[in-house]
Amino acid sequence: MSAAGPLLRHRFETLADASAALAEAVAVRLRACIDARGRALLAVPGGTTPARFLTALGEHELPWEKVTVLPTDERFVAPSDPASNERMIRAAFAPLRDGRAGFVSFHNAGDDLAAAAASLDRLLAGLPALDVVVSGMGADGHIASLFPGDERGLSAGPGVHAIAASPPDLPPRLSLSPARLRGAEHVCLLISGQEKDEVLASAVELPGAFPVGLLLGGPQGLDVYWAKA
Ligand SMILES: O=C1O[C@H](COP(=O)(O)O)[C@@H](O)[C@H](O)[C@H]1O
Fold first, then answer.
1. Is 179 exposed, middle or buried (0-12, 13-18, 19+ CB in 10 A)?
2. Does ligand 1 come within 6 angstroms of the Cβ of 153?
3. ipTM of the prediction greater than 0.90, yes or no
């Protein structure tokens, strides 16, 4: 078993500062992947936190045509729905708006959730390991669409790439699996606010208690970008 990598906490006053610093770090990683392998595969979160990071990342000078982006998870809604993560990512990230970067859409997987997850699983199985994962985290400690209490999704084994999730009171979701998230070469977490800071601290104490604990203890470590507000 390989030793756990470091948990590095980068702390900022504002989300703008955290986003700019994370964008710089991710751009450096992507460039190194492109130099080494000629391409890079990047997963980015949805929700409300990452838009500034995505905009800042898109301003970096990179051969974006060698980068493929995918969401860490997607709400099972129409691509035009305001809740769609893809919709937000495309709006915030210039290399996707202008067609330079590639994108793996989770919206093409079909109308039935279980069948869509199976189809997405096959698609992801054909992709190499992710080079960089940027995850968000909800105040309940969920990452991607792996929610507390989703025992099946949280305990999915290494051969599983995509998860169908039906969190209570929310639209169904499609998510990258724990193995896909943890298998990335570099893993970052972008969060803001006191509440999420405390949830992360609890997860460090009790890794099994929160889905975000899945990102702790991997050999690559975890880089946390936290903003006070
Ligand atoms: O539903 C989701 O929530 C998390 C956290 O979102 P935020 O709005 O609290 O930043 C996000 O990382 C995930 O991708 C998204 O689908």
1. middle
2. no
3. yes
